[in-house]
Amino acid sequence: MTTVKTLRIGFWNVQGLSPSKWDTVIQQFDQNKYDLIFTAETWFIDHQYHIQHPNFVISSHRFPRPIIGHEQSGLMLLASTELKSNINSAQSTSYTITLSVFGKTIFGAYFPPTLSP
């Protein structure tokens, strides 16, 4: 098991995960800038493509697709390939992702402005 002193975690509200935004996120791992990146409001664009990527860990649960407009929400967790091999577990709900790595729990959440209190 690898040990890490500091985890570099990013969170980006992408407002629709377009191909250019996806490339920017993946470049962060290629350039060794982050260990984990949460992306919010992916709207599940090209989701089947993204889940096959080596950096993909887990995404939030999907809502039924609206008749008009894009899919709602979409929280995705990506990890460096080095860190990914040390993730013990990952779980998600519609608005949260929780993972266990190096004996620690990391919780990411995105609550859209349209969510009722």
TrEMBL record:
Gene3D superfamilies: Endonuclease/exonuclease/phosphatase (3.60.10.10). It comes from Furculomyces boomerangus. This is Endonuclease/exonuclease/phosphatase domain-containing protein.
